[in-house]
Input
Amino acid sequence: MIQAVQKLLQPDLATDEKYRIFLQSVRYLRQSEQDASYHEMLKRLSELAQKAMQNEGAGKKAADAAMQQYVEAYQVFLAEKNKYQVYLVGSLYSCEKVRLLLNYDRVHLLGWTQTADERIGRSDYCIVCSAMKEHTLHAIAGMQHTFVVRYDLVRHFVMGILPECQGLDIRFREKLKSKVEGAVLGLSYVRKLNFDKLKHHIACFAASSHDLFLDYHKLMWIYDEVVHKHGGELKYCVLGMDFYRLWYDLSMSAYKERMMCMYHKLHCVHHFHELDAALGRYEEDLKICEELLVENYMDQEYHRESQIHEKREANVYDPTEEEYQRDISILKGHVFHKPYPHTFCENVGILEKILKFSRLRNIQILVYIPPFTKVFHACTPDSMRKDTWDVLRELQKLYAFPILDLSEHSAFEKKHFADCAHLNDDGADLATELLNLYMDEIW
Output
């Protein structure tokens, strides 16, 4: 159509052919009359079409000028029609957030709705922005011409479960612009170390869990980003360890959904096979989001709520007797109740893979055991503590890595802990200071 409309500006175009193309262009405009997003554009084109017709008998100069305006406006209209036609569905709040993320160089937004509106069927893509009832999703999916994109699930997996993961990824990419020479892995919460105070150009990936399988794949991914994609050198890895980690498998735990927090980077879920059938579709949605949304769209989602995610943890662990007994029950019955010999064997193998991968690439490993509360130590089974140390010492003979054990360091008091197992920000500052001092000695 665009080539045909451009012919209207040819000075030697026959009158009959000119009218035929002009009328064809007007008929094409009417196909978009039902789309409210084109209303102003169509109104303007209608006015210009009438002006072009009226000026046909007013002399060549006036007629050509009017037709020039019509063709230029028509080209703008066709440029919008040639973009991806997109409908948003969900709550007004969620649709408004996604509207701000659309890449308008590629996308024309037709509108938004909370129901299975038949107008969705005229779009190329329908982006689901918030949770919808199953029958509504089914009705939209049944529309012939549109493809449903589950942005609500993409956002939930990348940002909704553990927003800390996205925050660390943003910091990592910022740090890559200058220099990254190491990484911290194996800690379950950001507040166990202070990312901003780490020395030796070390990036922190102390989330989403203390799962060794994830850490192995994170290390390979970080190495690829630093060395292959940015031409840097990865020299160091601080690997967090505790006394139940070798028995822990996130993908088989009650928190298995956290495996998805970095799936868009790592593309692995270990034993979380319940999602196998849906992963292909999720991969496709990720690719479509890259096409329809602005670059690093999830960063904007994070920054919009960063004041929530980046609050300092000032809580101090000072439990009442009832809370203390509750914590003992949780630690004994949940954290340390891990009768999983097969998981232990698998994790020992994964730990050795991490060490071998690092040695082959001249990455120096430091095993770091963070501070814990007295109640945490009291609940740690002697057998798990012994088995952990046996494994570490045996592997230490083969791979010659140092160990920094702060688990019972005298500098840490009640005021440094947020709960029975995790440091608050003051504790994280102190742990980071001690880690930095140790790294200065060995590196």
Summary: The chain has 18 helices and nine strands.
